[in-house]
Amino acid sequence: QSVLTQPPSASGTPGQRVTISCSGSSSNIGSNYVYWYQQLPGTAPKLLIYRNNQRPSGVPDRFSGSKSGTSASLAISGLRSEDEADYYCAAWDDSLSGPEFGGGTKLTVL
Amino acid sequence: EVQLVESGGGLVQPGGSLRLSCAASGFTVSSNYMSWVRQAPGKGLEWVSVIYSGGSTYYADSVKGRFTISRDNSKNTLYLQMNSLRAEDTAVYYCARSPSPYYGDYYFDYWGQGTLVTVSS
After folding, report:
1. What whole-number distance in Å separates Cα of residue A89 and Cα of residue B22?
2. Does residue A1 carry a pLDDT above 80?
């Protein structure tokens, strides 16, 4: 059971804006950075957002992250078919002394 | 170019052992925090272990006492020795680099392609 809670699925049509939520607690999201990873089918995870809202080089600005209190969100605007993937949030957890991942959200582009 | 290439996965019986390797190029393993992250079939990601640049090691409770992370600086390679394997250890194991040395700022910027470990009789 993950300490970070994500919806198991999300969907949208091409061009639409979708958001994926990640809920935690004061010992993880509330006191540390949040990160987001994208995992395309059959591939390794890829860093999408770091330190709440920073994009690594090469990640389109269609992807954005935000954090408020003990929750965080990933927003994808101008949805494209190639965005169909699993998305994971992550944060360090002070009480567990290790990084924790959310359970993942499977995004379907209709 | 940064690259991580895992090897060593395979089929092993419950109670058996396996050693995974992760050969790195484009950066120095010993200067970074290096981790193993696993993913059971159809499941999410689970952090397994980390070795800090200073050599300290930490483990998830689920593998503590059974798995050992190490590195060979001369080969620029990371290892995961897995003993007393259980069916629930079946997963794809990824090695990953953590670029930040700051407490709480723990993320993975480069990942290997993964190696599958299957524990079954």
Report:
1. 24
2. no
Cα–Cα distance for residue pair A106/A85, rounded to 1 Å? 6
- Enumerate the residues of chain A whose CB falls inside 8 A of the CB of residue B109: 47, 50, 56
Integer Cα distance of A12 and A10 in angstroms: 7
**Is the separation of the CB atoms in B39 and B94 below 8 Å?**
yes
Residue A27 and residue A30: Cα distance in Å, rounded?
6
What phi and psi values does residue B88 have, to the nearest 5 degrees? Answer: -75, -5
Strands B67-72 and B77-82: what pairing? antiparallel
Residues B28-84 have pLDDT tens digits of: 999 999 999 999 999 999 999 999 999 999 999 999 999 999 999 999 999 999 999
- Tell me the Cα Rg of chain A: 13
Residues of A in contact with B69 (CB under 8 A): none
CB spacing of A44 vs B112 below 8 angstroms: yes
Strands B3-7 and A71-76: unpaired
